[in-house]
Specification:
CATH topology of the largest domain in chain B: MetI-like fold
CATH superfamily of the largest domain in chain A: MetI-like
CATH superfamily of the largest domain in chain B: MetI-like
Order of helices and strands of chain A: HHHHHHHHHHHHHHHHH
Helix content of chain A: over 70%
Number of strands of chain B: 0
Structural class of chain B: mainly alpha
Strand content of chain B: under 5%
CATH class of the largest domain in chain B: Mainly Alpha
Shape of chain A: globular
Largest sheet of chain B: none
Radius of gyration of chain A: 26 Å
CATH architecture of the largest domain in chain B: Orthogonal Bundle
Number of helices of chain B: 12
Number of domains of chain A: 2
CATH class of the largest domain in chain A: Mainly Alpha
Number of strands of chain A: 0
Number of domains of chain B: 2
Radius of gyration of chain B: 25 Å
CATH architecture of the largest domain in chain A: Orthogonal Bundle
Structural class of chain A: mainly alpha
Oligomer: heterodimer
Shape of chain B: globular
Chain lengths: ~300, ~290
Amino acid sequence: MQASTEHKKGFFYKSGLYRYKKYGALSLMLLPVIIYYLVFHYASMYGAVIAFKDYSFMKGIIGSPWVGLANFRRMFMSDSFFEVFRNTLVISLYKLITGFPAPILFAILLNELNGGRFKKTVQTISYLPHFLSWVILGGMFMQLLSLGGPINIFLKKIGLDPVFFLGDVRYFRSVLVITSLWKSIGWSSIIYLAALTGIDPQLYEAARIDGAGKIKQIIHITLPSLIPVITIMFIFSVGSIINDDFDQIFNLYNEAVYSVGDVISTYNYRIGMINNEYEYSTAVGLFKNVIAIVLIFITNFTAKKFNDYGIW
Amino acid sequence: MKIKKTPGETVFNFLNVIFMILFCCAAIYPFLYLAARSLSSADANFSQITIIPQGFSWENYVRVFKNADIGVGFKNAILRTVVGTTVNVVFSILAAYPLSKKYYPNRSFWTGIIVFTMFFSGGMIPGYLLVKRLGLLNTMWAMILPGAINTYNMIIMRNFFMSLPDALEEAAKIDGAGDFRVLVSIMLPMSKPIIATIALWSMVGHWNAWFDCLIYITDPSKQVLQVIMRRIVLEGTSQMLNPNASEFTDMIVNPENIKASTIIVATLPIVMVYPFLQKYFVKGVLVGSLKG
């Protein structure tokens, strides 16, 4: 390539800007993109300094006085913050335990259907909920789970007491876990299905000749072939354990279940957009984002160490 | 050579099919239930588990379509989806193409700056203050510009560009084509599948988006369907649901049935296009990787 030979001469190394001019058309394309990232991402990252300030709209972000860690102190002193922090981790953990293995299992079973129209139909149906917003699904589950809804009619039929699922602290988390599983199981299985198609069919043939049954084939051929994909998906899942599903919870929760269902993002929304406590809300958000990025680095490092397979 | 199925395999396959049928029923039942409710008359008795409309009637849909808010919501959602998708695709190409060139100066530095934003952000309030400061509140652009590039999709597109053979570009350049010309006449036509995939993702994303509209748009005449629907279905605050405040005072109203038809109306556009586009969506998931 032209560019690399010129690099070797060492001539263009020092005049950095000249190199951008050399690829002028490409630089012209990239320019609006860089401006976009600076304005809409880096400027708002800079805006997060109000977490360390006593923000007032009149003085603006730069003019507002510094208050050090006062907002974070308030956060750590607050009972409600600890409640939402705990809820976030507990709900994410429940979702990880159920929502992580389920699509793997689903993909393996789907793969055993051996192609054909039936398999395609199952896939089409199982992917559908992924394409609907939690506004729609929230409204849907509210009807399904209401006291007069079909689930409660069914419970009455089999002789159980009706349950107000969305207003009962004992059931709300289960509702979150199950509806989340319902929405994502099909779509999350795609990545595993793709990995499954890459397995050499001769492996199965050989196993069958040796007398291995379906279960043995799954344990000894299918699962081991999936390990690299499972690893990288696990990194993503664990790395995002602090990221709750705002859309889901915001569209399903109500004051009656705050004690078990209120999470960092919904709390953050209420203190920020409803109570207008901008600095405090930003501090909470910043705290969460810092934990999230640390988690990403840790999980990536660990995965690389054990599996030689990370995100970057 | 075909090996005969063992009895164990036959049992396994049978159970598997049964499981999948049950699974599909569970996946599709909520939609059928709502569809049944939406087509039922107001005095229908829903004390049975059924997917058949009770006292068939279109009245719920008539009310939904007569509601001015729904029409406004549809219009705004379509506008947002069309403009937003166009912006997404154009900006993604502008970012992905230069970053796909191994010879572009400081390529990994620029990529790093961009990828970093996937892992860290300022948060909701700084974003809100920024949009406010830029004077975008209560404009459509508040829902389009902050997400002008989906970084993950952009990286997928970059990886696709990188997979195209260098020889094509070199040949075109020998013939005197510039970078813009190479991109428009050679690279983009070859990238149609990936562009279609990313455009579709972007379309669904815009159609379903609601949170940005909720916080940035307070003017009801500029709100999108999802937010208007949220007001009707989740908060139950709409004159449509209130028999005393509407023109239908002589009719009984069943708010749950009306909510059901509102949900179906908002769901249908996606359900109708989805089966045809499914394969593009699935393909899209598989081309992506951050590596490289």
